[in-house]
Specification:
This protein is of the alpha/beta class and 574 residues long. The C terminus is likely disordered. The longest helix is centred in the N-terminal third of the chain and has 15 residues. The protein contains 25 helices and 18 strands. α16 runs parallel beside α17. Strands 12-11-13-14-10-15-18 form a 7-stranded mixed β-sheet, sandwiched between helices. Strands 6-5-4-9-8-7 form a 6-stranded antiparallel β-sheet.
Length: 574
């Protein structure tokens, strides 16, 4: 049966599946009843009921209709061609334009029997269309990736710039306008929708000379869009200040605030930071998606043997466990994952944070407030009078907080905290450098978990890659053996990874459990002795070695490993 046959007479999917031997009459009747109840398409219904595997269903459709079955994961899409079909139409009919064929177009469809969709698209595009079968999940993912909001953002910014005329310019009125159709509101809404769609962690709004830059941090790397409508920045900052409860008249001092917003069924907690710069005020917004909840330790990517050891440390009744790394390395995410496993009716848990990032049930979370002298140390003292079993201190920032936390760890409390250091080896001595007594650190500290985030190679466009000779020398020094002949992976860039070669990130970990030789070195305040004892311990492996394991498995690239190696000393490599 050809597609022309389908066009000439109405062919039903159920009949095709029975003809292909994939369904029997009883299953079809059950699927039709379920379809009436849910309103879903029959193809989705039979797959959800488990009657037919999706790949078998689509393969049968391809064979019966004599049309191609396209795997979108490995298909090179043309963004301009895809976007020539309006997004609303593509999403409504679950279709995507694949390529030009002769005088027409090849179009991917999750339901190639939808003749109304074909006719409507031919009317819009004024071209003859040839259908192909694609997986619905892959199609929707490709639409999310390719239909960026960049042009929409620029269009609304232009509209807003037109409203900001010198003759009737009233920024305060514009900022306070609650009309959801106001361009500034629609521009912000579009910015947030684009950021959520791209899974951005931060949005930067930066006024510059004659332009405003909108940058999103995706997988740890900033992506920039430049708009010529410079005055738009002031309107955006005004609206964001109002939403965050900040002082709209204060433009000379930095301010911090937060608000919640719901975007595309995602509940986003937005942390706002403003700072005066040369051409106005810069705004950075950290986006925390509360919808998915707190991540789990199993999802952290921690190696299985290390995960067992870390969980054992969390079950100890007292002592200090530190998680260290630079800003944005996932320290808080790891601690929250650990807390969620410890959270039970039998345990009293108190957290002291700045700010509280995720709300957790049953846990008493306190946010420090410098304006009223509610510091880490002050809250921590009060928390210890609340009879806690476990205390989480957002960050060891000063001597007083460190000493209170260490003493709490010695008096029957499990204390979890973070520290800004490069690796596990330097963390213990960092506490001593902050002013904590060496004997106190030696007695209270149980372990240090250091971590980084490296980008994951895009599975859609990965290819084999041989490192340069200079890179290979570093990698072999780290590995301790020859890597000749070993193959690594890298991404060449495609529509799914926005031509970066990377999609998502992985945690890289280094767990250091404090043993007797390390305790002795800490007591005598001997950094070199501590480092030597740590490197000699049975389970210790440096961060870069963990990153190299991922590279050898094809999960990340050599470049990402070398970024981690950049913090290593010659002694660590040896």
């Amino acid at each position: 049966m050809t597609q022309e046959d389908v066009r000439q007479r109405k062919v039903r999917l159920g009949d095709l599946l029975i003809e292909a031997g994939l369904l029997n009459d009883a299953q079809l009747q059950r699927a039709l009843q379920e379809q009436k109840r849910t309103g879903s398409k029959l193809g989705r219904t039979v797959v959800d009921l488990g009657f037919v595997d999706e790949v078998r269903l689509l393969t049968a459709l391809s064979e019966q209709l004599r049309i191609p079955f396209i795997d979108l994961k490995h298909f090179k899409l043309d963004p301009q061609l895809v976007q020539s079909l309006p997004e609303a139409v593509a999403r409504r009919f679950r279709v995507i334009l694949l390529s030009r064929e002769g005088g027409g177009l090849l179009v991917g469809m999750s339901d190639p029997l939808d003749l109304f969709a074909l006719d409507e698209m031919e009317r819009i595009l004024k071209l003859r269309l040839a259908p192909a079968v694609v997986r619905e999940a892959e199609l929707l993912a490709a639409l999310d990736t390719l239909y960026r909001r960049s042009s929409e953002i620029a269009s609304i910014a232009g509209e807003l710039e037109g409203e900001l005329k010198d003759s009737d310019f009233d920024l305060a009125k514009l900022g306070a306008d609650n009309n959801s159709d106001a361009p500034v509101v629609r521009l912000l809404q579009t910015l947030f929708e684009d950021a959520v769609q791209m899974k951005a962690s931060d949005i930067h709004i930066e006024p510059d000379e004659g332009v405003v830059r909108i940058r999103q941090r995706i997988d740890g790397v900033l992506n920039e869009q430049v708009m010529k409508e410079a005055r738009v920045a002031s309107a955006l900052v005004m609206r964001l200040k109002i939403m965050s409860g900040l002082d709209i008249s204060e433009k000379r001092l930095p301010q911090d605030g937060r608000f919640n917003i719901r975007v595309k069924n995602h509940n986003i907690d937005v942390r706002v930071s403003t700072m005066p710069v040369q051409y106005g005020e810069s705004v950075v917004m950290r986006l925390l998606d509360q919808t998915s909840g707190v991540s789990t330790l199993d999802a952290s990517g921690m190696p299985a043997d290390m995960l067992v050891r870390f969980r054992r440390l969390l079950q100890r009744p007292f002592g200090l466990v530190l998680v260290t790394g630079p800003t944005g390395s996932g320290k808080t995410t790891t601690l929250y994952a650990g807390l969620s496993e410890l959270n039970s009716p039998e345990k009293k848990i108190i957290t002291v944070e700045d700010p509280v990032e995720y709300r957790l049930p049953r846990i008493n979370q306190v946010q420090v407030n410098a304006k009223i002298d509610l510091s880490f140390a002050r809250v921590l003292r009060a928390a210890l009078r609340q009879d806690p079993d476990i205390v989480l201190v957002g960050e060891m920032r000063d001597q007083e907080t460190a000493e209170i936390g260490l003493r709490a760890a010695l008096t029957g409390h499990l204390v979890l905290s973070t520290l800004h250091t490069n690796d596990a080896l330097t963390s213990a001595m960092r506490l001593v450098d902050m002013g904590a007594e060496p004997f106190l650190v030696a007695t209270a500290l149980n372990a240090v978990l250091a971590q980084r985030l490296v980008r994951r190679v895009c599975e859609n466009c990965m290819e084999e890659h041989a490192p340069e000779p200079r890179q290979l020398v570093w990698l072999e020094a780290l590995y301790g053996a020859s890597l000749s002949g070993r193959r690594f992976k890298r991404g060449v860039g495609c529509h799914q990874c926005h031509n970066t070669g990377y999609a998502g990130r992985l945690g890289v970990f280094e767990l250091l459990e404090i043993n007797e030789p390390m305790v002795a070195a800490l007591r005598r305040n001997d950094p070199q002795g501590f480092a030597e004892a740590a490197q000699a311990s049975a389970h210790y492996r440096p961060l870069a070695a963990c990153a190299l394991d991922y590279a050898l498995a094809g999960a990340t690239s050599v470049d990402e490993v070398l970024k981690v190696c950049a913090t290593l000393t010659d002694e660590a490599l040896g």
